[in-house]
Write a structure and sequence with these properties.
Blueprint lengths: L1 H33 L11 H6 L2 H17 L4 H11 L1 H4 L4 E2 L8 E7 L15 H12 L3 E8 L5 H12 L3 E6 L9 E7 L3 E8 L5 E9 L5 E8 L7 H8 L6 H34 L5 E6 L7 H8 L3 E2 H5 L1 E2 L14 E5 L3 E8 L10 E7 L5
Parallel strand pairs: 2-3, 8-9
Antiparallel strand pairs: 1-11, 2-14, 3-5, 4-5, 6-7, 7-8, 9-12, 10-12, 13-14
Length: 375
């Protein structure tokens, strides 16, 4: 019996020698990813890069904790401490609420990817017709589209035709770039609520990071609706595959595209850090009830998300959804990068990701009700 016990202890010590370094590495990476929201990526982008993998590292940490518990390792206390410390970050990813699908205005945000379909290089895509058909069927009160692109070369005709075909009389378009002349792509807001004022959201990065409309609600109150699109990573197909396979340690892809990936990450994080500060200023200067939606190109663990929450706005997914709510349609299935944020005057009664096949993003639909609206 003593001999068996000694053999068991030897096996346990052997496995702990193998497991402990890996567990420490996972714990360190998880801590870096959890801290991403507190570190400006323009000053240090390491945290932001690791933060993209927060959900994967969370699962890895929990799995490690179970193994450490089985082998009675003291390293489990570090894992439990980290899970507890970053619990508020983890809860940003998951909704736990029942939904009321029949109450409130029906609003949708959708990055339509320039009507190029899922494949960015797809020529002569007809996805604008399919998206129009879907919007018309859904009987929406408001629609905010990012990466709206002219398919005919005449943006005025195309925005008018799109709005009319989708069943909207009021609409507003703002181009991405802060310059004169006709622009072929940008933001389009469609509204069945009367639009009484419009404007752009400029950035120090010399482009418009969004647009807004002020609409009159059925309660005769004025609400500002902003549609935003913060800078993307601009990854190519092979780079996305390399990034998506990173967790599986596909080293050939990582070695081939790693330098390109890192360069694009650093550039995008740096610009987006400036853009979110500009957006935060716009939000703070808006006194009326406010709804901000669109493609933020960042995760709930990010500096971008933390800055949005810092303004006092609430995430509709946390307020009225159930589950993870990933919105990126590509080979990165854990990414939630499209959001609705609401001021205290508004409340989401439902929030849903719709898995349409017409873009590399999925649209998000919410139902919104007033909550002590003021003029």
């Amino acid at each position: 019996m003593r001999k068996r016990r000694n053999i068991g202890n030897t096996i346990r010590k052997f496995f702990l020698i193998l497991i402990s370094p890996a567990s420490l590495a996972v714990a360190l990476l998880f801590a870096l990813s959890g801290a991403a929201g507190f570190i400006n990526p323009a000053e240090n982008d390491l945290f932001a890069v690791v933060g993209l993998f927060y959900p994967i590292l969370f699962v890895a940490l929990v799995a490690n904790a179970i193994v450490l518990l089985i082998f009675r390792s003291n390293w489990i206390y570090l894992h439990l401490l980290l899970l507890l410390a970053f619990l508020p970050i983890s809860l940003r990813y998951i909704g736990f609420h029942n939904q009321d699908l029949n109450q409130g205005w029906k609003v949708m945000t959708y990055n339509v990817h320039g009507f190029r379909g899922f494949n960015k290089t797809q020529p002569n895509s007809t996805s604008h017709k399919e998206i129009i058909a879907y919007i018309k069927k859904e009987n929406l009160d408001l629609v905010c589209l990012q990466e709206f692109r002219s398919w005919s070369g005449n943006i005025e005709n195309d925005t008018r035709a799109f709005a009319t075909a989708a069943g909207f009389q009021d609409y507003h378009f703002t181009g991405y770039w802060r310059k004169g002349g006709v622009q072929s792509d940008g933001y389009l807001i469609l509204s069945n609520l009367p639009i009484i004022n419009t404007g752009a959201i400029p950035s120090t990065t010399k482009r418009n990071i969004g647009t807004f409309v002020d609409v009159k609600t059925p309660e005769e109150k004025i609400v500002r609706v902003a549609s935003v699109h913060l800078i993307s990573f601009s990854l190519g197909k092979q780079e996305i595959e390399a990034f998506g396979e990173a967790a599986a340690l596909e080293m050939n892809l990582i070695k081939k595209h790693g330098r390109s990936l890192l360069g694009k990450f650093r550039n995008s994080f740096n610009i987006r850090a400036k853009e979110i500060i500009d957006l935060q200023l716009f939000i703070k200067n808006t006194e009326m009830p406010l709804l901000v939606c669109g493609d933020f190109n960042d995760t709930p663990a990010s500096f971008t998300y933390s800055k949005m929450i810092e303004t006092g706005l609430k995430d509709s997914h946390i307020q009225a959804d159930f589950g993870l709510g990933a919105t990126y349609a590509g080979n990165l299935p854990w990414l939630r990068i499209d959001y609705f944020f609401l001021s205290k005057h508004l409340k989401a009664t439902s929030s849903n990701v719709i898995q349409l096949p017409f873009s590399d993003h999925y649209p998000v639909q919410v139902r919104i009700v007033p909550s002590t609206l003021t003029p």
